[in-house]
Amino acid sequence: MKFRKLSRIILAAGAALGLGLGVVACGPSNTIDFLYVTTSKQNPGKINVYKVDSESGALIQIADSPYSSQGRNPVADVASPNGKNLYVINHDDNTVVEFAIGTDGKLYPQQTCNTPGSFPVQMAINSAGTFLYVIETYQPNFNANIPGPGALVVYPISANGSMGAGGGSCTPVADGKNSFFPVGTTPGAVDVLASNNYVYAVNTGDATVMAFSSDSAGALTPIGTYPVGVAPNAIVSDPTNRFLYITDGASNQVVGFVIQGDGTLIPMQSPFPTQSLPDAITIDPRGQWVLVANYNSNSISSFAINQNSGNLATGASQTSPNFLVNTGPAAVLIEPALGRYVYTANFLDNTVAGVYMNPGSGALSGVQNSPFIAGGQPTSIAAVTHGNHSIQHTQP
User: Fold this and answer.
1) Does the predicted TM-score (pTM) go above 0.90?
2) What does the mean pLDDT of the chain come to?
3) What domains, with CATH codes, occur in the chain?
4) What are the beta bridge partners of residue 291?
């Protein structure tokens, strides 16, 4: 999947493995999160499950890990807001698989849904946990030999985590006679605001982001399309529903937008430079810091969010805005329990890197014994909290 992603970026532009010794296993009392990392090399793919240690940020795989992804080439995963379910995209099988998450972090496959089109690549879930948004490379009747526009598929989520209208039917929200909502060429990412009202889809091939409003039944209505750089490829919104950020992998930058009350977007004055080939982006739970994974530079770029304008800047107390991780970071995540440990899935060296982020300054430093062994070609990361944790985002 990563090679496909890089190929799309190039086309649109026209243009040390190891596990340290001495890690103490995380006990129940100091496990703050469970981390889920998909790996794509094997068939079927795998899901590596780790406990996150509260004191060190160290990762320890749970006893039964890894689990089967139930399909080929898992490329994305997302956890439900209540921490009870994990959803995984198997790109080559055109499926989304629902897993139940045990209180000990273990996974139990529940449901497999075939997507209407082909080659799903990314997804998001709303904060209410009621709708799952899946981006597909091609609508029905299109494929790699007959290229065409992509699709945004909306699955209702039942109280038990099952997908589809009526609970477990796999039936998406309809757009007239279609089981999907049309988007542009080679879509690569999707985001839904914390308010649940607006959804944004990034089209890498068209270099645009499409804005949709969402009604209570999950139906989407287009409200605008906006240009974004050369090859946009990842997207994130802040917890206050005010700012939207999109990485441009071809131009090595983040493009920012201010979100209006009606969901429309106003571009920020200028893009914000990253290192080479940014391909993943996240915001800390407090809404203060943006972190970007740079695939070619093997690094994370850290930015402070101006709470008035949304503009990004390097933290004043940071000696460098860029922190080296491992080879080919394809995904980046800040754990949700404490919001201070950052992890990247490193596609090219089969590891997960751990980084400590100072919540006050945004400064990054290494986690002891990082990197941690994953499987072959890790592609994505999701996490759920373990125990009672509450992080308050920055108020406007």
Assistant:
1) yes
2) 91
3) 2-12+36-385 (2.130.10.10)
4) 282, 302
